[in-house]
Each structure stands twice: as structure tokens, then as C-alpha cells.
Specification:
- Pfam families: 2-oxoacid_dh, Biotin_lipoyl, E3_binding.
- It catalyses: N(6)-[(R)-dihydrolipoyl]-L-lysyl-[protein] + 2-methylpropanoyl-CoA = N(6)-[(R)-S(8)-2-methylpropanoyldihydrolipoyl]-L-lysyl-[protein] + CoA.
- GO terms for molecular function: acetyltransferase activity; dihydrolipoamide branched chain acyltransferase activity; lipoic acid binding.
- Belongs to the 2-oxoacid dehydrogenase family.
- The protein has 451 residues and is of the alpha+beta class.
- The protein has 3 domains: 85 residues, RNA polymerase II/Efflux pump adaptor protein, barrel-sandwich hybrid domain (OB fold (Dihydrolipoamide Acetyltransferase, E2P)), CATH 2.40.50; 55 residues, Irregular (Dihydrolipoamide Transferase); 221 residues, Chloramphenicol acetyltransferase-like domain (Chloramphenicol Acetyltransferase).
- Helix content is 27%, strand content 21%.
- Strands 9, 12, 15, 16, 17, 18 and 19 form a 7-stranded mixed β-sheet that branches. The chain has a 4-stranded antiparallel β-sheet with strand order 1-8-6-3, with no helix packed on it.
- α6 packs across α7.
- The radius of gyration is 30 Å and the shape is globular.
Length: 451
């Protein structure tokens, strides 16, 4: 009887042990992937886009996210192989250098400093689920998981125009809504689009100016100053320390208009979008060869003016994220078509808010084609540490006298120059402008000097 009891007890123990072993689980360590110092004194960035989500398997050098500083857009790549377990920031949220971006489950040992810390709840505000983001509808097919991707600037435009972003189809990456998408939406829907109807106009007749209505804000809206706008605040504050002087002139561009018309088909065959800006930039580069003191920068102590060997000509661009001033490197070595291709590349990157740091640093001279939007004259502000900038107005068809005193119709542009009067005198600016004007009025002379 005792033996039977012992055997029964032993049998039960064996069964218990086998059950314990089948329930055993293994846990892999978690590391925090933190935002590293990306240089240029940047302490904080805005998360513009996630390329991963929780549960994704990633490898070293895989893209994790894209962040926007006040200087450039930067793509962050993984340093680990593993599985993403946590995202620490929402899209458009702010991340500081040294702060965790994601948690990654990895194999192997983990350094103590890489282990996740028990942190207080994030101070990053949650995206409010207000009436402006209703439950998904058929028109939200471009927004995965019902999330609307848009920058603060685009959201502000939508608020000001009483537009539900969930009703706008985004043309950016992963359905991101760009400024152009909102403006296009405003031009397609009737003024009472807030009712939910999205009937698109089928007529080709241009809409009347009154077809689009604007409503006043019901309350004050605080818009965070981020990204490119923050950079421009710093730059323009420094620019106010520069004593500016201005010089204006007008140029007859009949010959240039004719030449561009002759080259448009030739350019199209080579997939080149040929605007007037490549001619303006190339003419400036040729003129700068004669006046190197304008292709220059000042040092921090204002003890030297550095005449730059490369003509890295900046062009002011209006983007969904604000004003940005990238530059085209080595314009003195490029043809007009090559400059046109660079402009197209920068404009496309600007629309996606993906202009890299390398395109934003090293500029030596700036042109702003404000006439592409409107206006004739402007008062451009120097982009420090550069010493000169030009603003070009729109082409106008105006009456002018020819050499026989006959009134003719002429294509005319106005240019407004500003220079740092500490290091550039008025005579130099006038002579440079005359040379630039000569190349635009006689574009064959410009083409003759291309290498």
C-alpha cells in the first residue's frame, strides 16, 4: 500500500515537471534607439514620417524615419537588427537629441545605457480626434489606417479655409497631403463643401473669384515655429545687422523669350523643364566671373571677405514647409540645361520637404524669382554670410521706344539688387547688373561663353 502511494506520488511529480517545461518562454532584450547628434548645433527635430511601425522587422541601415530640423531634412537609419516594439513620437512630434526614437527587440547582450528607461508619460501632445478628422470615408483611401499625414503649415491652411483634411487626397509619399493638394481641393469643390459633398466641376471654364469663400477664425490659433521657418527667423535676424543698399533696373528680354521658345522642344526631348530661371542663374554666374567680390562671404569677425571659387547660386523657393533657400553647386561649370535639371530636382525635393543638408549649405550668391508668384520690384534681404542678392520680377508686355523712336511692345523684367554696403560699393553693384543685363538682352553672347 505504501509502495503504491509512493508510486502514485512520483507519477504526479513527473507529470508536473513535464507541464512546467512546456510552458517555459524566452524573452529577448530591448534596446532604445536614440536620436544621435546630427551636427550644426541642432538640438531638436520634428518627426516628419515613419518608415516603420510596431512589429516590423528591421536590419541595420534600414530607414527608420525622416526628421526635419531648422536646417534640413534628414533620414535616420537603424543601427540594429531586430523587431520594432515601440515608437516614441507621433508624426509632427518633436524629438530632442539623445531622446529615444524607437525600442528594438534584439538578440544578444545589451549595454545598460541602451536599455529602455522607465519614463514619465510623453509630453508630446496627442493628436486630438476632433470633428475635423471624422471616421474614415471613401475619400480617405489615400490615408492608411485613417491617419491624415500633413505638415502644420498645411493643417493651418486647411483650418483657415474650413477644409477637412480627411476629404483631401494627398499626392505626397504614403498619401501625405501637400499644400498644392489643399489648394487643388479648394478649386474643385463648391463653397459649401463643408457639408461633405465633393462634387468636382466638370466644366473647363475658369472658376469665378467668388467661388471660394474664406471664413474668419473662431479663436486665436498658436502655430509652432518649426522647421525651415525657425531657420529663417535666425537667418533674417542676423541679416538685420547688415547695412543694405538697393539698386534697381529693367531689362528687355525679347531675345531671351525668343531663344527659350526655340529651345523648349529641344529641352523637352531631353526631359528638361526649361524655365527662365536657368538663364538668369547662368547669366549671373558669367557676370560673377568679372566681379568676384559679389560671389563672396564674410568671416565671423568681419576681418576678411572670402571670394569663393565655386558659384553655388542659391534660389529662394516656396515650399509647403515654408521658405527654403537651397543652392546649385558649381554653376560656373554647368550648362543651362544642367542648371535646369538641378532646379527641377530641388523643386521636387522641396515639394516633398526632403531637401538635404548638402543642398542648403555652401551658398555664395542668391537669386529670388519673386515674379513667378507676382510683382515687379522687391526689397530682397541678404542671406548672411553672403554679400548680395537679387529679386527678379515677372515678365511684362509694355510699350517702349525702339531706336527709331517708334513705340513697340517689349517683354520687360525688373530686377532689384541688394548688397552689403560694408564690403560692396554702389559702382560695383551697378557694373555687375549691367553685365548681367547684357547677357540677358544678348543671350547669344551668353551661349558663346559656355564651356
Amino acid at each position: 500500500m505504501l509502495a503504491a502511494r509512493l508510486l502514485g506520488t512520483s507519477s504526479r511529480i513527473v507529470k508536473f515537471n513535464r507541464h512546467f517545461h512546456t510552458a517555459k518562454a524566452s524573452f529577448l532584450p530591448i534596446v532604445q534607439f536614440k536620436l544621435s547628434d546630427i551636427g550644426e548645433g541642432i538640438a531638436e527635430v520634428q518627426v516628419k514620417e515613419w518608415y516603420v511601425k510596431e512589429g516590423d522587422t528591421i536590419s541595420q541601415f534600414d530607414k527608420v524615419c525622416e526628421v526635419q530640423s531648422d536646417k534640413a531634412a534628414v533620414t535616420i537609419s537603424s543601427r540594429y537588427d531586430g523587431v520594432v516594439r515601440k515608437l516614441y513620437h507621433d508624426v509632427d512630434g518633436m524629438a530632442r537629441v539623445g531622446q529615444a526614437l524607437i525600442d528594438v527587440e534584439v538578440e544578444g547582450n545589451v549595454e545598460e545605457e541602451d536599455k529602455p528607461k522607465k519614463e514619465a508619460p510623453s509630453s508630446t501632445p496627442e493628436v486630438s480626434k476632433s470633428s475635423s478628422s471624422p471616421p474614415s470615408t471613401a475619400s480617405e483611401g489615400a490615408h492608411p489606417e485613417g491617419k491624415v499625414l500633413a505638415t502644420p503649415a498645411v493643417r493651418r491652411i486647411a483650418i483657415e479655409n474650413n477644409v477637412k483634411l480627411s476629404s483631401v487626397r494627398g499626392s505626397g509619399r504614403d498619401g501625405r497631403i501637400l499644400k498644392e493638394d489643399v489648394l487643388k481641393f479648394l478649386g474643385q469643390v463648391p463653397a459649401d463643401h463643408s457639408s461633405g459633398s465633393t462634387n468636382i466641376r466638370t466644366t473647363h471654364q475658369a472658376p469665378l473669384p467668388t467661388a471660394k469663400s474664406y471664413e474668419a477664425l473662431k479663436e486665436d490659433v498658436a502655430v509652432p515655429i518649426r522647421g525651415y521657418t525657425r531657420a529663417m527667423i535666425k537667418t533674417m535676424t542676423e541679416a538685420l545687422k547688415i547695412p543694405h543698399f538697393g539698386y534697381n533696373d529693367e531689362i528687355n528680354v525679347d531675345a531671351l523669350v525668343k531663344l527659350r521658345g526655340e529651345l523648349k522642344d529641344f529641352a523637352k526631348e531631353r526631359h528638361v523643364k526649361l524655365s527662365y530661371m536657368p538663364f538668369f542663374i547662368k547669366a549671373a554666374s558669367l557676370a560673377l566671373l568679372e566681379f568676384p567680390g559679389l560671389n563672396a562671404t564674410t568671416d565671423d569677425k568681419l576681418e576678411n571677405v572670402i571670394h569663393k571659387a565655386s558659384h553655388n547660386i542659391c534660389l529662394a523657393m516656396d515650399t509647403p514647409g515654408g521658405l527654403v533657400v537651397p543652392n546649385i553647386k558649381n554653376c560656373e561649370q554647368r550648362s543651362i540645361f544642367e542648371i535646369a535639371q538641378e532646379i527641377t530636382r530641388l523643386m521636387e525635393a522641396g515639394k516633398r520637404q526632403q531637401i538635404g543638408r548638402e543642398d542648403l549649405v555652401g551658398g555664395t550668391f542668391t537669386l529670388s524669382n519673386i515674379g513667378a508668384i507676382g510683382g515687379t520690384y522687391a526689397s530682397p534681404v541678404i542671406f548672411p554670410p553672403q554679400v548680395a542678392i537679387g529679386a527678379i520680377g515677372k515678365i511684362e508686355r509694355l510699350p517702349r521706344f525702339d531706336r527709331h523712336d517708334n513705340v513697340i511692345a517689349a517683354n520687360v523684367i525688373k530686377v532689384s539688387w541688394c548688397a552689403d554696403h560694408r564690403v560692396v560699393d554702389g559702382a560695383t553693384m551697378a557694373r555687375f547688373s549691367n553685365r548681367w543685363k547684357f547677357y540677358l538682352e544678348h543671350p547669344s553672347a551668353m551661349l558663346a561663353q559656355l564651356k
